[in-house]
Amino acid sequence: MSTEPDRRHETIALPKGVSLKVEAGRLRAKGPLGTVERPFPSDVIDLSVAGGSATLELRLPAHRKKSQALLKTWAAHLRNIGGGLTRGVEARMKVVAAHFPMKVQVRGEELVIENFLGEKYPRTTRLSPGTKAQVEGDIVTLSGHDLEQVGQSAANIERVTRIRDYDPRVFQDGIYLIERAHLKEAS
Predict the structure, then answer these.
(1) What is residue 18's DSSP assignment?
(2) Percent of the chain, pLDDT > 90?
(3) Structural domain 9-86, CATH architecture
(4) What are the tens digits of pLDDT across the range 110-148?
């Protein structure tokens, strides 16, 4: 008899108030802070929820590395979704303006950057759904309940302030990520 652990299952404890449901290849999670929906590979992984925990069962041969990677990845996704729906997610960015004073503000669902490198027209980027931005001095704080959406908003902001046609060693202006998207500390 083998003492090797069963590699076909992964069990995740769900925080109180979080419910999961899979319908037509989409995972829908609901919690106190909102809902998260994303595609789910229901053809290769089964999800069952009972008694405050979720169990993922692999339909593929468990001895393959890629099968194990898929199972562990979805276990991490479920932990992040559960934590985001109960505690929230936060990322921090820093505004660096060495040459021209930059003005950053939130207008509705957009972040507007004015006077970037002395440009006449403002640069704008849309925040991902469920993400809120707050500007305090030279720090931009992004918050929400979905780790992927907050991270994507931070990437969009960095991308919109990317400098082209100038020497990057001299022109280091932009908005840069200083604290990755992470689950907020439990209070």
Answers:
(1) -
(2) 63
(3) Alpha-Beta Complex (3.90)
(4) 999 999 989 999 999 999 999 999 999 999 999 999 999
The sheet carrying 89-96 orders its strands as 132-136, 139-144, 89-96, 174-183
- For the chain, the domains span 9-86, 89-183
Show contacts of 110-119: CB within 8 Å, 24+ apart. 111/140, 111/157, 113/160, 113/161, 113/175, 116/161, 116/173, 117/163, 117/166, 117/171, 117/173
72 token code pair: 């562990």
Which is the CATH superfamily of the domain at 89-183? Ribosomal protein L6 (3.90.930.12)
The answer to whether 90 and 74 are in contact (CB under 8 A) is no
The one-letter code for the residue type at 46 is D
Regions of the chain short of the pLDDT cut 70: 1-6, 62, 187
Q: From the CB of residue 1, how many other CB atoms can be counted at a distance below 10 Å?
A: 3
